[in-house]
């Protein structure tokens, strides 16, 4: 009896631990729900739109502890994961990868030359793209928002919400939007005073 209680308690503790993200052959942490595409970004934008979603590029690199934290702490959180899955098509890019990419301006490059062209220096960097692909702008110029680096749950999730709600088209910048949402969460008792 005591043994079965201890075994059940051990399984409960293991179930409560954050999920460890799978690591692919390229050294990047993987999510089963990330989209695998031909990396033609204009086509990916169109595909996301046809699914009533927005395209976001997740630029990562092997050994990145912040990428690992994003996968294990943020993308494993059901509230965060479920919101992103329902509203965004995520395509992962390797900052130093050799896969072919077709930029929104039509230029063909490798992942590493595309990331260098776009000027992104940190991982993870999340690049949120418009609903309609531009034909004369590269990704860095077409992006409606960019989130460089690792953030806490609410900053991370609120950026996705702000983009989905097209906050970039309003007079409310992300920082004001985020502060307002945090106040609403506190008022609803979903956040402490931290």
Concise structural overview:
43% of the residues lie in helices and 16% in strands.
Please give a structural write-up.
This is Thioredoxin-related protein. Residues 1-21 form the signal peptide. Residues 48-132 form the Thioredoxin-like fold domain. Keywords: Signal. This protein has 194 residues and is of the alpha+beta class. It has a domain at 21-152: Glutaredoxin. The chain has 8 helices and 8 strands. The strands form 3 sheets. The protein has a 4-stranded mixed β-sheet, sandwiched between helices. The longest helix is centred in the first third of the chain and has 15 residues, at 2-16. The N and C termini lie far apart (42 Å).
Key terms:
194 residues; alpha+beta; Glutaredoxin; two-stranded antiparallel ribbon; 8 strands
Q: Describe the sheet with the most strands.
A: 4 strands, mixed
Oligomeric form of this entry?
A: single chain
Distance between the termini: 42 Å
Range of strand content: 15-25%
> Into which percent range does the helicity of residues fall?
40-55%
Radius of gyration: 19 Å
What is the overall silhouette? globular
The CATH homologous superfamily of the domain at 21-152 is termed Glutaredoxin
- Write out the strand line-up for the largest beta sheet, numbering strands in chain order: 4-3-7-8
CATH architectural type of the domain at 21-152: 3-Layer(aba) Sandwich
The overall strand count is 8
Protein name: Thioredoxin-related protein
Organism: Hartmannibacter diazotrophicus
InterPro entries: SoxW, Thioredoxin-like_fold, Thioredoxin-like_sf
Signal peptide: 1-21
């Amino acid at each position: 009896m005591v043994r079965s209680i201890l075994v059940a308690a051990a399984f409960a503790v293991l179930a409560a631990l954050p999920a460890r993200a799978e690591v692919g052959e390229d050294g990047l942490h993987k999510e089963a729900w990330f989209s695998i595409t031909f990396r033609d970004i204009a086509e990916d934008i169109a595909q996301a739109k046809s699914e009533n979603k927005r395209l976001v590029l997740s630029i990562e690199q092997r050994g990145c502890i912040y990428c690992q934290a994003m996968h294990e702490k943020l993308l494993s959180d059901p509230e965060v994961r479920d919101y992103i899955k329902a509203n965004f098509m995520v395509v992962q890019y390797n900052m130093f990868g050799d896969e072919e990419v077709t930029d929104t301006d039509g230029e063909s490059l490798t992942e590493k030359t595309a990331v260098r062209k776009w000027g992104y220096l940190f991982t993870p960097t999340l690049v949120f793209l418009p609903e309609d692909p531009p034909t004369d702008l590269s990704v860095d110029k077409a992006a409606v928002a960019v989130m460089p680096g690792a953030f806490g749950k609410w900053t991370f999730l609120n950026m996705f919400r702000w983009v989905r709600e097209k906050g970039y088209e309003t007079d409310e910048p992300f920082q004001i939007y985020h502060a307002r949402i945090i106040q609403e969460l506190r008022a609803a008792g979903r956040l402490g005073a931290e």
